[in-house]
Structure formats: structure tokens, C-alpha cells
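Structure record:
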Amino acid sequence: MSISSNKRANSPFMYVRCKRKDQTFFIPCALSDTILQIKERIIVAQKSTNKNNNDDFSSKVAAKGGDTSRILSSPSDIKLFTNMTGDREVSNASTVADYDFDCDTILYMVYCRRPSYDDSDDEEGENWEDIQVDELMPRD
């Protein structure tokens, strides 16, 4: 039995890491969970993180010149990929088991550049961010 198989066999529940820029969400999941369910948990985790901050998150984002439309409201605002090149997007209807994910699998996340209520066509991926994951810098 390989190490990755042991990670999965020892527990019915596991987690995947969803990374975007300087964010990492540890999302608990089971093998039977769909990618859509993982995206829904990302939204809950983001809202929970924002709610735990004492300051109003939208105000902080706007004050830094950020785009407040990036505060997620729908799973359709997220795409997940199994690699950083973005050529392996995971399907909402597929399960964790379908992709043979192990505990601590890394998924790369991008947000839609437009609000979820905008039904305009997404031609050539122009409405999506590029995959970016910040490297950790060692502390001095």
C-alpha cells in the first residue's frame, strides 16, 4: 500500500487544500463529496473568515483599492484545477473519489472577474483570473 493510499484508508474524512494567491483554504471532505460541494464550502469558509475579522471586510478591500466583487457569492464564481498550468479543471459533478484525491491534495483556485449575476459569455477565459499562488517567504 502506498503512502497516499494510507492517508485515505485511515479516515473516512479528509481535506483538500485550495490555494489562490496568498490564501489557502483547508476544506474538509469525504470521498463521496462533489467538487460543487467543495466550492460551496470554500464560500462558507471565506465568509466565516471575513466575519471573524473585527473590521468590515468589504471596506478593507475597497480601502486597499481591491475589487469587492471578489467576495464570493456562488460556486460558479470559482474554478478549481489540479495543476498550476490551468489545463486540468475539475468538474462540479465529479466526486473526490472520481479524481482519486488523497488527503492534503492541492487544488488551484481562480475567481471569476465578473459578478455571478452577469450572464455574459465567457470567451477565451477572459472573465477568469490567471492561476497565482504566492510563495511563502521565510521569516527573519
About this structure: The chain is about 25% helix and 20% strand.
